[in-house]
Amino acid sequence: MSPAILGGLLLIGIDWRLGLLALLPFLAAIRLAFRRVHLHDSWGSETVAVDRSTTLPRAYWRAWAVLLTCASVETSDPEAGPLPTATTG
Questions:
Q1: Average per-residue pLDDT in the chain?
Q2: 69: phi then psi, degrees, rounded to nearest 5
Q3: Which residues make Cβ contacts (< 8 Å) with residue 88, sequence separation at least 6?
Q4: Are 19 and 9 contacting, i.e. CB atoms less than 8 angstroms apart?
Q5: pLDDT tens column, 16-35
Q6: CA-CA distances (angstroms) from residue 41 to 33, 35, 37, 38, 44?
């Protein structure tokens, strides 16, 4: 849904960065909804033994490899340039 909304904003001449301002009401609503929720302060209150001999599964590392590969290809494309902006008139 977000790509469609941002695409519509571009068509009417609103830059995608201004579309990020739409997050502010959402974040404010979350803050209001959870204003009375307090996180338990457990820093240093208990010690948990961690088994360091286990490793993360291969699927985890494959997912990270794909994510990093896609991000590096996307950011290193010299012909991509900046996002196009809508022109009016």
A1: 77
A2: -65, -45
A3: 12, 13
A4: yes
A5: 677 677 788 888 999 999 88
A6: 21, 16, 12, 9, 9
Check residue 49 and give its pLDDT.
72
11: CB partners within 8 A, 6+ apart: 86
55 pLDDT more than 80: yes
DSSP line for the chain: -HHHHHHHHHHTT--HHHHGGGHHHHHHHHHHHTTT------TTT------TT----HHHHHHHHHHHHHHHHHHS-TTT-SPP-----
Rounded to an integer, what distance in angstroms lies between the CA atom of residue 65 and that of residue 45?
Answer: 36
Residue 89 near residue 13, CB atoms below 8 Å: no
The structure's pTM equals 0.33
Q: Which residue has the tokens 């490899």?
A: 65
